[in-house]
Amino acid sequence: MEGLQEGDIMEILDPQVVKEANPEEIDDICSLTEACLRLKGRDRPTMKEVDMRLQFLRTKRLRKCKFLPASDQEIEHLLCPEISNSNAQVNVENPGNLTSEGISSCYSLEQELSS
């Protein structure tokens, strides 16, 4: 919490995360972390809110890596549990064009942020 307040976040982040993430992604995770560390339980987000926020951030990251289409309608069911049983399909954009470097870069950052 101290690092978040003082702005020394780059010193406590794993070097791989610093290398792979952009400042916006780091800010998003930091603000979520800060919200989760609030002293009063009523001020903290619920687990469902945290889960939805992480899903949103993951989807945003995957879009940048070209793993998901840009259409919100095609991924809406991932973020909205009430329509998760719908017939909506997630179509991967051009899976033949994915490079192993791009996949591992996105995967490693995702793993680091989720742990």
Describe this entry's structure for a reader.
This protein has 115 residues and is mainly alpha-helical. It has one domain. Helix content is 61%, strand content 0%. It contains seven helices and no strands. It has helices at residues 2-6, 9-12, 15-20, 23-36, 47-64, 72-79, 100-114. α4 (23-36) runs antiparallel to α5. The protein starts with a helix and ends with a helix. 5% of the residues are buried. Mean pLDDT is 72; it is low at 80-100.
Q: Quick recap of the structure?
A:
InterPro entries: WAK-like. The protein is mostly helical. It is built from seven helices and no strands.
Task: Give the arrangement of secondary structure elements.
Elements: H1 2-6, H2 9-12, H3 15-20, H4 23-36, H5 47-64, H6 72-79, H7 100-114
Helix pairs in contact: 4-5
InterPro entries: WAK-like
Keywords: ATP-binding, Nucleotide-binding
Protein name: Serine-threonine/tyrosine-protein kinase catalytic domain-containing protein
Keywords:
flat, 7 helices, 115 residues, mainly alpha
Number of helical regions: 7
Record field, number of beta strands: 0
- Percentage of residues in strands: under 5%
Question: Helix and strand succession?
Answer: HHHHHHH
Instruction: Estimate percent helicity.
Output: 55-70%
Large-scale geometry: flat
Largest sheet: none
CA(first)-CA(last) distance: 17 Å
